[in-house]
Amino acid sequence: VYDDQVGEKRAVQTLSGGESFIAALSLALALGEVIQQESGGINIDALFVDEGFGSLDANSLDVAMNALESLEGESRLIGIISHVTELRDNIPDQLQVEPAGTGRSRLKILHSA
């Protein structure tokens, strides 16, 4: 992995949890772009990110959210599965799964105004 802050390569094993998540997210986004450009018609119109945000500090969380928000308007669905409460304020349309007791769950749909 190339670390732009220090201007040199780093072994993947030296990355923190947050750095690993950002690197994996970057790789997923880049691979999606390459596949679409090189495949001759395959359109990847959905990306689901399952957890990972909990390992990010506030600055890294902003970086990750900005990267995902930059895809808005490109006809892509971005699904984020997370327990991080700070994300709720930044995500306008949400499906929240809440416990309903006795092993059941309730789905709550929220749309931004």
From TrEMBL:
Identification of the protein by name: Nuclease SbcCD subunit C
Family the UniProt entry places it in: Belongs to the SMC family. SbcC subfamily.
Any Pfam family matching the protein: SbcC_Walker_B
Subunit structure: Heterodimer of SbcC and SbcD.
Origin superkingdom: Bacteria
